[in-house]
């Protein structure tokens, strides 16, 4: 097998194994990744702020003997501070900013031996289900269909992994931003229980606890092993997730046992969804039943779903405003129109109408929904839904040139219609994953979401790995790669 064939077909775990056996060098893997990026990135616009010289320096200094020694990697262009790796946060305002410290997240990845060489694109400040940012000169496109979005906000990571530039990449998830690109690009994405991964040292929590870090990968075992690398609290974290009795990797190696699995083919409010999304959920339910699980059609949750979504939007708008206010304070002058995209400016305007009491009311709504969803899932081990309400959106639909933040999220065809399932588990803090089990007649990936009770990450990872064994997806490749 040639190096090119091995790189295209093997996951990160297997590539690290080749390095460990001396069959390939980290420099050869990096050269292959850079060559692939040069070939496909002009088509998909997924990778930015590339610093191959920094990656070569890491190799020359001697890579740690970690589980992913020598494997090429990119961080999302949002968060994950790392010295030597410029970050723009999807914004012209911050283009090429140089971090002055390493996040705990990146430090753990570096110690695992990964060779980071750049960033994957993100919508401005992570506020959208598609990756379309003015700073990148155009949308990030889906390797399965260049007219479709790769998702957001980790859209660059999703597109690059699907296009075989990388076997795995960093993602983060504040309302679905790991699972949406995983679904859109035919990948596996896992959002852990809240606070499983430290966001320090500069941040205690993101978006009032909605956000968490993670990965998009082609294999479940890669995701599990990466989660083991980065999981665990650090001094100063405001809170942490319940400890796991076994590791993610151990969980992926064992069957979960017979589970009680409820499924939905409507939104949480009972509204209809696209036929392709419904078919994906029904197909996954049939597969799980054939694997011996008790599968049943779940009732709708007794929870204020729209109240939760509107409260979440308020938190996101406040988070955007806080970012912009910090930039204004640092530079000593206000942000002007044209420096950021209209959507961010309107999010800031909206946030400035929200009082302290209003913000606390939004947090109370979010917490009440979390309690309601915990009760809802107490009747089952796992809830199955589509990841999205539709196939991947056409490019341009979620552009941040949109100047009305609330209409962007709640207007006809807005975020709430497109992604009615994912944010619920950011609010509840429960683990949730998107698994690539279905492709529609147009050849577009349609992911399904699986979620479990708070702290039950290991059981959920076991189930995802079992699904991969029952219906492998790694040999499905997009036309652009």
UniProtKB/TrEMBL annotation:
Highest taxon of the lineage: Bacteria
UniProt record similarity statement: Belongs to the amidase family.
Gene3D superfamilies in the cross-refs: Amidase signature (AS) domain
Record key words, sorted: Hydrolase
GO molecular function: hydrolase activity
Any Pfam family: Amidase
Domain spans labelled Amidase: 28-460
InterPro entries: Amidase, Amidase_dom, AS_sf
Residue ranges the record marks as coiled coil: none
Name of the protein described by the UniProt record: Amidase/6-aminohexanoate-cyclic-dimer hydrolase
Species, as recorded: Albimonas pacifica
